[in-house]
Amino acid sequence: MPTFTCSAILFDLDGVLVDSTRAVDREWRAWAARKGVDGDAIMAIAHGVRTVEVIRQVAPQLDAELEARLIESEEADDKEGVVAMPGAIELLRSIPEGRWGVVTSGSRLLASTRMQYCGLPVPKVLITADDVTQGKPHPEPYLKGAELLGFSPAECLVIEDAPAGIQSARAGGMKVVGITSTYAAAALESADAVIGELRQIHVTLNGTGRLGVEVR
């Protein structure tokens, strides 16, 4: 497995720092049943993509922004089975303050609610669906994360679980470690390395002030 040298790390949230798969599936399928939309079609595209963009694809006749707010409000209230990913808290504690951020396709309400509920620190740099005009797989979310951290995209390493997120980070010129929490390794093949869990990542601060990220 490789070792990366970077100045900062950007994490996706759901499927990377927070295990919310069951809640996401539950709320999307409940919404689909209410609206007469194919739940399987939604789940095939929903991971790593902004809620509003999923709705625009599967139900263009609806008010996507209104429906997205309703779904994410329900998701924020649905905490059953929502837990921190194994190793997440320890990994975040090993990274110096100001050297990491979160870039998620969820809303700010949903992201902050889930992180606080799971006992994860909410970073100063938190890029959400509310902060961008184009979501993943467009590079805007990760580019904005790098900008607010104060580092060039090439100096940032991204941890992602979804193809859309990997594509977003790569398009922004960043290295990516994929984690097989949501998709099989084959779906993450465009990442620079693929792991099974966060405990395989070890971060140290080297003599130059940069981060050494060892993937085991």
Portion in helices? 25-40%
Residue-averaged pLDDT, rounded? 96
What value does the Rg take, in angstroms?
17 Å
H and E string: EEEHHHHEHEHEHEHEEEE
Secondary-structure-based class equals: alpha/beta
Largest sheet: 6 strands, parallel
Give the terminus-to-terminus CA distance. Answer: 6 Å
Structural notes for this entry:
The protein is of the alpha/beta class and about 220 residues long. The protein folds into 2 domains: about 5-20 and about 80-215, Rossmann fold, CATH 3.40.50; about 20-75, DNA polymerase, domain 1 (Orthogonal Bundle). Helices cover about 35% and strands about 20% of the residues. It has helices at about 20-35, 40-45, 50-60, 65-75, 90-95, 110-115, 140-150, 165-170, and strands at about 5, 10, 20, 85, 100-105, 125, 155-160, 175-180, 195, 200-205, 210-215. The strands form 3 sheets. Strands 6-5-2-7-8-9 form a 6-stranded parallel beta sheet. Strand 5, helix 6 (about 110-115) and strand 6 form a beta-alpha-beta unit. Helix 3 crosses helix 4 (about 65-75) and helix 4 packs parallel to helix 6. The radius of gyration is 17 Å and the shape is globular.
Structure described in brief:
With 216 residues, this protein is α/β, with parallel strands linked by helices. The protein has helices spanning 21-35, 39-43, 51-58, 64-77, 88-93, 108-117, 140-149, 163-171, and strands at residues 3-6, 8-11, 18-19, 83-84, 100-103, 126-127, 156-160, 175-179, 193-195, 201-205, 211-215.
